Amino acid sequence: xxxxxxxxxxxxxxxxxxxxxxxxxxxxxxxxxxxxxxxxxxxxxxxxxxxxxxxxxxxxxxxxxxxxxxxxxxxxxxxxxxxxxxxxxxxxxxxxxxxxxxxxxxxxxxxxxxxxxxxxxxxxxxxxxxxxxxxxxxxxxxxxxxxxxxxxxxxxxxxxxxxxxxxxxxxxxxxxxxxxxxxxxxxxxxxxxxxxxxxxxxxxxxxxxxxxxxxxxxxxxxxxxxxxxxxxxxxxxxxxxxxxxxxxxxxxxxxxxxxxxxxxxxxxxxxxxxxxxxxxxxxxxxxxxxxxxxxxxxxxxxxxxxxxxxxxxxxxxxxxxxxxxxxxxxxxxxxxxxxxxxxxxxxxxxxxxxxxxxxxxxxxxxxxxxxxxxxxxxxxxxxxxxxxxxxx
Length: 392
What we know:
The structure is a single chain. This protein has helices at 59-69, 129-136, 152-170, 195-198, 208-223, 251-260, 281-284, 354-380, and strands at residues 26-27, 32-37, 43-49, 86-90, 92-93, 96-97, 102-107, 173-181, 184-185, 230-237, 265-270, 288-291, 294-297, 305-306, 309-310, 315-321, 330-334, 340-344. By secondary structure, the chain is an alpha+beta fold. It has one domain: 4-Layer Sandwich (Chorismate synthase, AroC fold), CATH 3.60.150.10.
């Protein structure tokens, strides 16, 4: 199935003109990952290049985060039944990393392409079907193929490795949690939120009372054949001073790119974010004080980043996720022959991406931070850290 060339929607694919047709599937500089696979293909996975050698690593280090991301884990996630069991195929010998590429794979087990037959010729509203078809001229329509959130399995697997390196090398802790579902919001302190409180309920909101209301809302929207969105808070504690670059590779810029590369993400802000526009400069500034041989700030409206570089305080930010695009109601759309038609959502889908987005946000945070940590050490070593009192 292809859009008609004469419609003007699909560019030609002439050869011999020197163009390289590809997708950007690689992320990072010194710690680089390349994800691969489609939603209803044989499997999905990731190749990591740049992992330091000699670190103990096994599937047991990676599986817990994949279990938090997998479908079918609760009443408010898609019922697709996948174990998402990871296999390390290369880069580890006798339980330790070799410094060579680490390849990991998760098999697709519960795939049902027949549930998506209508999507082969009709474009789902607010999905990537139409744009992908026009750009590439061919797509794996079952489950969205490469545009499915199942692609994030590779990111989460790689993120688990990155989190282990960050913790072992620098003592950095990375976590995320849900703070808002539609109009229900929880007040969460980035300095004190604990992973065990996040994991205490199926929505992954550390405020148990608010979490219960969030779950009720999601279940109600699902019963109505609808969906909801919300906000995930990302937190990194113990980040040394000096990570990030002052111009194009600012730490918050790379975090923003990482978060906005996630499926269904629609917004990003760091520190005070958009809330800071209602303050004056005097109100917003984070005053410096010397405390126990370290430079600290009395407040943290900067979100742990100043001038694109980490300042030693807790890094925190928010990511907005839209309501899931697939709803169980008839909607207007267009088919591959440019005819107006309708389409009703089918298949297995999340009514809200947020609980499964939490480990995705953690993974992308860890990937950005580890890459910048390695880049900083390669360029600066431990130089320039005298005032901070912390290793770089």
